[in-house]
Specification:
Blueprint (H helix, E strand, L loop, with lengths): L3 H11 L2 H14 L9 E5 L7 H6 L3 E6 L2 H11 L4 H6 E5 L2 H8 L6 E4 L1
Parallel strand pairs: 1-2, 1-4, 2-3
Length: 115
């Protein structure tokens, strides 16, 4: 399945009020379960970085893993104006979840997001 074919629709949805509320609710649900920064987090299927970029701003070291080049390009565009510290703490990896451990290693993270 080409996830790039779904990217446009998903990105359009995330810019709506409903999409923004959804991202906020997701964040509120997982935030209390995260270890404090500078913990290492992998965001599996992290798309355009809606969760990863704020986590990097908070001081987390984040690996965003996504199978869509278009989504990672969007994450990179959003990340571009951030300061060097934020950009240094976020690694973008093009991969499916199934192949992710081969590219990023196993047991390297303190927490994982997968939604």
């Amino acid at each position: 399945m080409s996830f790039d074919s779904l990217a446009g629709r998903y990105l359009k949805h995330t810019s709506t009020l409903r999409g923004l509320v959804r991202q906020t609710l997701v964040r509120e649900q997982f935030a209390p379960h995260l270890p404090p920064p500078p913990a290492r987090i992998i965001d599996v299927g992290g798309g355009a970085g809606h969760q990863s970029i704020p986590l990097a701003r908070e001081g987390y070291w984040v690996t965003l893993l996504d199978p869509s080049e278009e989504m990672l390009n969007r994450a990179n565009e959003t990340l571009r104006p951030e300061d060097h510290g934020v950009r240094d703490r976020l690694r973008l990896v093009l991969s499916t979840a199934e192949d992710g451990s081969r590219l990023v290693g196993k047991g390297l993270f303190d927490a994982a997001l997968c939604r």
